[in-house]
Design a protein that fits this description.
By secondary structure, the protein is of the alpha/beta class. 31% of the residues lie in helices and 19% in strands. It contains 18 helices and 20 strands. The strands form five sheets. Strands 3, 4, 5, 10 and 11 form a five-stranded parallel beta sheet that branches. The radius of gyration is 40 Å and the shape is rod-shaped. Pfam families: DUF6049 (PF19516). Keywords: Membrane, Transmembrane, Transmembrane helix. InterPro entries: DUF6049 (IPR046112).
């Protein structure tokens, strides 16, 4: 329809709102949309830079996404395919990669013998890749040939390029190309220990059907694409690290940061010096700078423009850096000031791309109209804006099943052909000159309700009780992890599971969903430790003074080998029990322990069988044991009779001794002497 026919071709060029009304006997039905009147004026185009997060939000017990979930997400209508389709629209789109997603995919593809439950049926192969575009990539650009790609054009050569933090304290940081700490990430807690070749898993199994065909195709296309883009390594599960630190969970925040090594192992040029908090304070950014962060992605709600028109996206922040102030003696209280880059997100454009249920054509029209309005503000002064595509939002309670909004892909495609829009990659944006913006601020945001949460803010502010519960669960899990032969692996899996409930994608989700995630994480942790338990035995009869060993069977239904000892704790002093020696109970097996006990006194003793670790932690699963201690009457009777006979003998001896020697009468003595003389004479 010609613009003149509907009155749109008058006045200045720019966006026009449209309303279409369909009238019928049932009543009018209307729909809204946008279009842009473009009579080919001469303007300086607005330059747009994008970051697309490659994440899936949702809880998983060990922190890794289940194989069947990944296979569904990589199908034609899945979240991962939608994200990849958006990324392929323009080569300037940077990728923010979640290490949890990357490691989950590698683990799923490295085990081709596993089966996938409820996975989509394998489709007939065609000439299109998972992103829905023809696969016209030359053979030489396959994953195997992308092991050492050239740096994207405009990538800074060192941490100080593009206006990074500049202060005397930064001299040591420039030795690392990404500005991250120089410690080896593989030694940090949470570092990946999976020796999986990222390129090798792109090859399907040759001796069996591929259980994950969609996921393997998606990963092959993603690996090829990401090697040509700027990649930002996110914390594990895209966790809100600042919120964890504000909630006192510093160790959990460190675990999330260290997970970035999973991304750098696959993409050596990935940037680890970029932070993307949901909301941040100056203290948050100072802590991030101490961890090597040199660029922060912030909303314009926190860094508003000081001009009447849209300001450039690149700004800066003055923060305190840990170190020694110039000209002063070394002291823990000394610090130096420096500038941190701030990439300020245009929240209006980002919100337009984040509409989950809107028609893609409507989203694209609205997006172009908004960019036209920005260009019209200063048509001969090109501005640079920064847009982040939506993070994966969970649907239901804890399942990462929501597809990325289709409107985002449509809007990016439309922007690529609009004459008042140009795209530029992230390094080019960072090479520009920072502009002045208002100081960092925290806007007033409604707290939300059980059904809806505020769309902006820190998890520490939006879900404080949830983070408290996660912290308590973590303390408990780390204590009981000492029961296993590899406690660090158990702690790492537990932490990764908890971090899945702290993803930035939860911001804006219903409060009940986040609480459910925390409850599910707690139940999963309890279920793991409940898998190590003693079997309930029958009652035991024991005589006093007897020393025996009571057999106890310990079951281990977990996937980890355990090393424990068995202790019987009596409630009365009638039974004395020792502790069994420590022994290993293999995963999925049971073992017999012998616990030495001694009957002390005649009693019915109610006792408990406990499993103890080498750090003297008592595991939560215990069981009862009833012990009857009885006297040995046969031995007691023999002792009593023997004692009676001995007493009679002693009394007889005493009586005999007390009588003394008998005296002979004198007449009998004289008669005896006379008889003796007579005998002598004879």
């Amino acid at each position: 329809m010609p613009a003149e026919d509907v009155g749109l071709g008058t006045g200045d060029w720019g966006g026009r709102g449209l309303e279409v009304i369909l009238r019928s006997d049932a009543g009018p039905v209307s729909a809204y949309g946008y279009t842009t009147w473009w009579p080919e004026p001469t303007v300086d185009a607005t330059r747009v830079s994008y970051v697309l997060p490659m994440t899936l939000t949702g809880h998983s017990t060990d922190g890794l996404l289940p194989r069947d979930v990944l296979e569904r997400a990589a199908a034609e209508d899945g979240t991962l395919t939608a994200q990849l389709r958006s990324a392929r629209v323009d080569p300037a789109v940077a990728l923010a990669v979640d290490p949890r997603l990357l490691e989950s995919v590698l683990e799923a593809l490295a085990d081709p013998d596993a089966t996938v439950e409820d996975a989509p049926a394998e489709e007939e192969p065609d000439a299109e890749d998972p992103a829905g575009e023809p696969t016209d990539t030359p053979e030489a650009s396959g994953p195997e040939d992308s092991a050492a790609p050239a740096s994207p054009e405009g990538t800074p050569d060192d941490a100080t390029a593009g206006g990074a933090v500049t202060s005397p304290a930064d001299a040591e940081d420039t030795a690392h190309p990404t500005g991250a700490p120089t410690d080896d990430p593989s030694t940090a807690p949470g570092a990946s220990e999976t020796p999986i070749d990222p390129a090798a898993v792109t090859q399907p199994p040759t001796d069996a059907p591929d259980p994950t065909p969609h996921l393997r195709d998606w990963y092959t296309a993603f690996l090829e694409l990401a090697h040509t883009r700027t990649v930002i390594a996110l914390p594990w599960a895209d966790a809100d690290v600042a919120a964890l630190e504000n909630a006192g969970l510093q160790d959990l925040a460190d675990r999330a940061r260290s997970g970035r090594s999973v991304v750098t192992e696959v993409f050596a040029e990935a940037r680890t010096d970029v932070a993307w908090p949901t909301a941040a304070t100056e203290a948050d950014l100072e802590r991030a700078a101490a961890q090597g962060v040199r660029t922060a992605i912030l909303s314009d709600l926190q860094k508003p423009a000081v001009t009447s028109y849209t300001s450039n996206a690149l700004s800066s922040l003055t923060i305190s850096l840990p170190g020694t102030a110039s000209g002063s003696e070394e002291s823990e209280s000394d610090s130096a000031s420096g500038l941190m880059e701030a990439l300020v997100v245009d929240s209006g454009l980002t919100d337009t791309l984040s509409q989950p249920d809107a028609d893609p054509a409507v989203v694209a029209g609205e997006y172009l109209a908004e960019l036209a309005a920005i260009t019209l503000e200063r048509p001969y002064d090109s501005r640079e804006v920064f847009v982040t595509l939506p993070r994966s939002v969970p649907v239901g309670e804890v399942a990462p099943t929501a597809a990325a909004p289709a409107g985002a892909t449509a809007a990016l495609s439309a922007g690529a052909s609009a004459p008042w829009v140009e795209t530029q990659d992230l390094p080019s944006l960072l090479d520009g000159q920072p502009v002045a913006r208002a100081p960092l601020t925290t806007p007033e945001v409604p707290a939300g309700s059980e059904d809806d949460a505020a769309a902006f803010g820190s998890l520490a502010d939006l879900y404080p009780t949830t983070l408290t519960a996660l912290g308590e669960n973590r303390v408990r899990a780390h204590r009981f992890a000492s029961a296993f032969t590899d406690p660090e692996a158990v702690r790492r899996e537990s932490d990764h599971g908890l971090l899945s409930c702290t993803s930035a994608g939860w911001v804006g989700a219903p409060l009940t969903s986040v609480d459910t995630c925390a409850l599910t994480a707690a139940e999963a942790s309890s279920g793991l430790f409940a898998g190590l338990r003693p079997e309930k035995g029958s009652s035991v009869l024991l005589v006093t003074g007897e020393e025996i060993s009571i057999p106890v069977i310990v079951q281990n239904t977990t996937d980890e080998d355990a090393r424990v000892a068995v202790r019987i704790r009596a409630t009365t002093p009638g039974l004395s029990a020792q502790q069994s020696p420590f022994a290993v109970v293999e995963a999925g097996q049971s073992a017999r322990f012998e616990v030495p006990v001694t009957g002390v006194a005649n009693a019915n003793v109610e006792s408990r069988i406990e499993l103890v670790t080498e750090t003297d932690e008592v595991m939560p699963e215990t069981t009862e044991l009833f012990v009857r201690v009885r006297a040995d009457w046969e031995n007691i009777g023999t002792a009593v009779i023997g004692s009676g006979l001995l007493l009679v003998l002693v009394l007889g001896i005493i009586k005999t001794v007390s009588r003394g020697r008998r005296t002979i009468p004198k007449n009998q003595l004289d008669a005896a002497v006379a008889r003796a003389h007579e005998i002598d004479r004879d």
